[in-house]
Specification:
The complex is a heterodimer. By secondary structure, chain A is of the alpha/beta class. Chain A is built from ten helices and 18 strands. Helices cover 21% and strands 18% of the residues of chain A. In chain A, strands 1, 2, 7, 8, 9, 10 and 18 form a seven-stranded mixed beta sheet that branches. The longest helix of chain A has 20 residues. Chain B is an all-alpha fold. Chain B has seven helices and no strands. The longest helix of chain B is centred in the middle third of the chain and has 19 residues. The chains are: A alpha/beta, B mainly alpha. At the A-B interface, helix 7 and helix 8 of A face helix 6 and helix 7 of B.
């Protein structure tokens, strides 16, 4: 049975898709929002240290299931393996209503003005496709503001002298500082740094009908059971549905974007919850599946006009896959610094995000999210044995006395770090799966080394009597901060979408998620995804009227 | 030196009960995956990884129950690794000391474990034992919030202030 034609179909209900669906529906368009995962109930907000979005040793609780959703990972030595969602090499984000925003840590960073002009500021870098964005911070500023106010952001960025200009302050004050914050702040000031309160999509006061953070340990990687963490699933998506013009269809797996003979998109083929193939026709299609799955969907949409996948005639779809290279330092304090008060992360500095001599960019540094005991074991110092009495003694003695500062390095994009579709392996519906390969640029690791030393200085100043640094390897980066695979640009030969996220040469197909990021900033990317979603939505509505 | 804690207290009672029930019907069996001998070997290994001291060790807090449950669930693709790994160390114990691994003194057990600490199986069971001890009690380990008590953090978990009943919907 043919489904009723709609004005727009949006594929993926995460940070990008949720906002586009709401913007278009609120403006009067009929919208079909397709989500391959489910809408999680309060029961599923289990506080489970071993089965959540960050620690998935017993399963990826925010989807997808391990069965039937493989990817292929090509290792640095050329060997290949099939990986499942609960493994790190899968580079999973989440597949559920809200996408990653249902379980994220919810840092709500604006990129800095320099982050959009990396090539102009730092020049060409060998082995990297480093480039400027076709748009600048000023273009996105009103949309950053809109995201902050519509979804709700707390924090205080006023003391950050490096931030780009903003018209309005954040809508909510920061949460009260935890113990770690109170130790790190004076230490940063003594070092001449400029600490401030991390902006967070988290309610510090009642906001838009939802309550306040209850400061529990199970924050990043979990759904918030008091709805104080603001994702698309509890803000814009309910508003989209309330218009009466948006339908959300869950467990709907997009298979292929459908094209007319003239090269216009006419809809999407998807598999419904009963494993039936459906065709949803629409005037326009918005792809918001995350950097890996959006690229996969485009590459799987082959036609006479686009034999290598839609938008891929110049071989840029899936290229420049990037994320963030986390780096930092830990220190042991002679006194307690951990008070088990969530969300944990609260204080940051941007002193090293740009302007570091000899380096292309840099990174923000902050304290880490809340500390689950099993996660803590992943950060043990190199001198402690991996098991036995000494291991247990160390954990018991230092768990509450370990301080951690870390941050995301802005990565140098690499053309050969990429998403392809695998020629052999298919998922449970017979759709070719994502094949991931590549590596980090050498300079990304040099920046990581620099930044970890700055983090070490900070924890030492805070009183650490012994420290150790976190040293990343050169393996492919993507994960929750995955970006870059459908680059935004003015030239169709070196990018996939235009400045409004419209696929070059296809007038009614958009990609709206971190895929379009030319570079990924030195910050958690979600607020930028949201701002771009508002920016692209405004363009869609402008051109339609 | 103290013998393997597995033969102390609650663990001993539990396993001797399981051994005694071998003659009984299958429904009375304690383990989903392990044989009793494997369970005894695993318990001794887990207690080498997280030994009991002033705080409980891994076996006493349900590590073997955790492993047994996961090996029939999310960790089923490691069944063979466990069968082989546990048999190998037990055979080595019999060859070197003339006794099953679980019956050796702690020093003898430690010697055998040290020889194997770089092996894939030992790394695997180490990680899984850590999950059991430091993870959520709902999976069979960290019984009575033992590790959370040890670290001085909130137990049981703070629950939300929603109007929902968080039990599984019927």
């Amino acid at each position: 049975m043919a489904l009723q034609h709609v004005d727009a179909v949006v594929i993926g209900s995460g940070a990008g898709g949720g906002i586009v669906a709401k913007e278009l529906a609120a403006a009067g368009m009929s919208v079909m929002l397709l989500e391959r995962g489910r809408w999680l109930s309060p029961y599923e907000c289990a506080k489970d240290d071993l089965r959540n979005q960050r620690t998935s040793v017993l399963g990826a609780s925010f989807g997808p299931e391990d069965e039937g959703n493989p990817r292929v990972k090509v290792n640095r030595d050329g060997s290949e393996e099939i990986v499942h969602p609960s493994r790190g090499a899968y580079h999973n984000n989440a597949m559920c209503v809200g996408g990653g925003t249902a379980s994220y840590g919810a840092m709500a960073w604006r990129f800095m003005a320099q982050d959009f002009r990396m090539r102009s500021i730092y020049g060409a870098v060998e082995g990297s496709t480093l480039e400027d964005w076709p748009i600048g911070y000023d273009d996105l500023e009103p949309y950053y503001e809109k995201a902050e106010y519509e979804l709700g952001v707390s924090g205080d960025v006023e003391p950050d002298p490096f931030k780009a200009p903003r018209r309005k302050p954040l809508p909510m004050p920061p949460l009260a500082p935890n113990l770690e914050y109170r130790i790190l702040k004076p230490a940063a000031l003594r070092l001449g740094l400029h600490p401030f309160d991390i902006p967070m999509l988290r309610n510090s006061v009642p906001y838009d009908g939802r309550g306040v953070c209850m400061r529990c340990r199970w924050c990043v990687g979990f759904a918030c059971e008091v709805n104080a963490k603001n994702g698309t699933q509890n803000t814009v998506i309910p508003k989209a549905l309330a218009t009466g013009r948006c339908e959300l269809r869950t467990r709907a797996v997009a298979k292929e974007i459908l094209l007319t003979a003239q090269g216009k998109v006419r809809g999407v083929a998807y598999i419904d919850e009963s494993d039936r193939l459906q065709e949803q026709t629409a005037d326009l299609v918005v792809v918001s599946c995350g950097a890996i799955e959006s690229a996969r969907l485009l590459l799987n949409s082959k036609s006479r006009l686009f034999p290598r996948g839609i938008g891929n005639n110049y071989d840029w779809v899936g290229r420049n896959l990037q994320g963030h290279t986390y780096t930092g330092a830990n220190g042991l304090l002679p006194f307690d610094c951990y008070d088990d008060v969530g969300p944990g992360a609260g204080i940051a500095i941007c002193d090293y995000a740009h302007g570091n001599p000899g380096l292309v960019g840099g990174g923000m540094l902050c304290n880490e999210f809340i500390r689950l005991p099993y996660q803590y074991l992943g950060r043990m110092p190199p001198w402690v044995p991996a098991w036995g009495k000494e291991h247990k003694d160390f954990v018991r003695k230092w768990y509450r006395r370990t301080i951690n500062v870390q941050g995301p390095v802005q990565e140098l994009p690499v053309f050969d770090s990429r998403v392809q579709v695998d020629p052999k392996v298919k998922d449970r519906w017979g759709i070719p799966v994502a094949r991931l390969s590549g590596y980090k640029h050498r300079h990304t690791l040099e920046i990581a080394d620099f930044l970890s030393r700055r983090a070490e200085e900070w924890v030492k100043e805070a009183g650490a009597i012994r420290t150790w640094r976190r040293v990343p390897n050169d393996d492919l980066s993507a994960g929750q901060h995955q970006a870059g695979t459908c680059r935004m640009g003015d030239d169709p030969k070196t990018s996939v979408v235009d400045r409004y996220c419209r696929v070059h040469d296809v007038e009614n197909l958009y990609v709206v998620d971190a895929s379009v990021h030319v570079t990924n900033g030195a910050f958690n990317p979600v607020l930028t995804i949201m701002a771009i979603a508002y920016w692209a939505s405004a363009h869609i509505l402008r051109t339609r009227s | 030196m103290k013998r393997s804690s597995y033969l102390d207290r609650r663990g001993f009672l539990a396993v001797s009960g399981a051994a005694g029930s071998l003659a009984c019907s299958k429904a009375g069996r304690r383990w989903r995956f392990f044989t009793d001998q494997e369970a005894a070997t695993a318990a001794a290994l887990c207690d080498q990884i997280i030994p009991p001291d002033e705080d409980p060790g891994a076996a006493q807090t349900g590590a073997v129950e955790f492993l047994d449950r996961q090996l029939k669930g999310h960790y089923r693709h490691w069944q063979q690794a466990y069968r082989e790994g546990l048999r190998e160390i037990d055979q080595a114990a019999r060859a070197k000391f003339g006794k099953p691994f679980a019956s050796l003194g702690a020093a003898e057990q430690l010697e055998l474990v040290r020889e194997r600490e770089k092996t894939p199986f030992f790394r695997l069971i180490t990680d899984h034992t850590m999950q059991s001890f430091y993870g959520d009690p709902r999976h069979g380990g960290n019984r009575d919030f033992a590790s959370w008590r040890m670290l001085g953090i909130a137990h049981p978990p703070v629950r939300g202030r929603q109007q929902y009943d968080l039990r599984r919907p019927k």
